Amino acid sequence: MEYGISTKCLYGNGQASSPDASGAISFPIYQTATFAHKAVGESTGYDYSRLQNPTREQLEKVVASLENGIDALAFSSGMAAITALFELFEPGDHIITDCDLYGGSIRLFDNISKKNGMVFDHVNCSKILCGDEEGKAFETLVNEKTKAIFIETPTNPMMNVIDICKLSRIAEKNKLLLIVDNTFLTPYFQNPLKLGAHVVVHSGTKYLGGHNDTLAGFLVTSSEEIAGRLRFIIKTVGSGLAPFDSWLILRGIKTLAIRMERASKNTGRIVEWLRCQEKITKVFYPGIPESPGFEICKEQAGGFGCMVTFEVETKELALEILQKVRLIQFAESLGGVETLITYPITQTHADVPEETLAANGITDKVLRLSVGIEDEEDLIKELERVFYE
């Protein structure tokens, strides 16, 4: 049965019944490393928790249903998921990525994947696809070794929006995998598989978990062939999510819909406030009508999300803001119920080369907000105090 998104957050497309005779409403934590067999050939369907575990399996079914995929795989972190994904490729393979990505992804590609023989082009996909001759500039990057395109949309931290449908047509024409990191908007607002992507990536640590209390990562696909290859990889490299962490993410997903609605409403109010402040020189948010990605995001997503980046007048002001916040907390990460402020240049993007930071506009004056579910008036009062007291 195909449920609506809020119902899927509770059950996936499955039933609301207990998995055993206990009648438990909360799916149990199967905290076991191995499973007994009655005899040779008589398995319960589970052998060893590195291969699969009932709690992780239930979580994967829920996430697959949310993203409209045929399979989802749960990993110990978002970076573990991306690392496993790149085991699909071989030395000499060429990957095109957007230039504005989470710093951990850039670090992986530039230091591990390149060491393993992969070749990368990092380009601004939000700009290169804006020409009237659709995709021609982008396609000049494609060669016989090109295997995949990897993007985030909106991007982290500069909130650029990339046209997934346009990229999917280019990928299809050139027989490339299109991989989309959907962490910022979540399946509640955006479904890249429906728009033509082949693999969706999530840092489940963020909005899916939603409470800043555990790490997780996901790969979701609509391809049987890709799913089979990824299943072989996850059991081989052993980076699957543990049972207790799987249960925490399952619990977090139950409230995904209402958290995204509340946080998105708060974000709209905060963006309005930020845009009126003279000390703020730029606000980056796809929900601003003047934003270059506004129309694309409105077309391919059901909302603009809860992340906003802004630039202040001076480095000194940025540092003062980080020192003065109290209700809003100065911390890395995003997507939890608490509002967090991050300094990308020393936190999420500390290992990114200076020339890349400069090209992307990530300076010592740029701050990133992950808006939570507090009362919006309390958040506005906090900002007013931080800026003007």
TrEMBL record:
Alphabetized Pfam families for the sequence: Cys_Met_Meta_PP (PF01053)
Cofactor(s) the record lists: pyridoxal 5'-phosphate
Keywords assigned by UniProt, alphabetized: Aminotransferase, Pyridoxal phosphate, Transferase
GO molecular function: transaminase activity
Family label: Belongs to the trans-sulfuration enzymes family.
Protein name, entry field: PLP-dependent aspartate aminotransferase family protein
